[in-house]
Amino acid sequence: MLHKLKIIVISILLMAMFTTTCCFADASSPSVAISYGDELSPQYVVTRFIQSSLGFTGRQACVDIYSEVDRGAADRMKVTVTLKKVGSSTSVKTWTDQIRMVSDYGTVRFSEYYTVPSSGTYYFTAVGKMYRNNLVVDSFSVSSPQKVCS
Questions:
Q1: Which terminus of the chain faces fewer neighbouring Cβ atoms within 10 Å, N or C?
Q2: How many Å apart are CA 53 and CA 30, to the nearest integer?
Q3: 122 and 88 in contact (C-beta within 8 Å)?
Q4: Considering the entire predicted model, what is its pTM?
């Protein structure tokens, strides 16, 4: 009787094991599939965070973006930063820059200064991409808080 019970339990376990579909996700490289028409392109999220700040010393604006990515996931960042005045339809200053990652730590910083033509409230927007071996591995957009220049 005990022998038959063991056989039944083992049979049920084997049946459950072979009829169950298991899915595993690799947490080390999360990805999202984005569809462009008929084309499917994987996009890997490698950016841990992006910090933006805008400050003024007199009329000199300091535009700063600091980013950290997964170690070894990207080797450079290409970014376009546009400084704008609130209420104006034109941009005050635009920078386009390509910056290498600091060694293998995965940090990168964009920092520029510009003397604004008049007092007012300013902010900046930035759009960029992270690259590894000339392939895009992540993209981002960020805006700074508005700051008053008097």
A1: N
A2: 28
A3: no
A4: 0.68
Give the pLDDT confidence of 49-81 residue by residue, as tens digits: 899 999 999 999 999 999 888 888 888 899 999
Q: Which two tokens stand for residue 148?
A: 């008053």
116 Cβ neighbours under 8 A, 6+ residues apart: 56, 59, 60, 61, 83, 85, 92, 122, 149
For the chain, what percentages of helix, strand and coil (3-state, to nearest 5) are there? Answer: 10, 60, 30
Strands 120-132 and 76-85: antiparallel
Distance CA 50, CA 108 (A): 10
The encoded tokens of residue 28 equal 């080390």
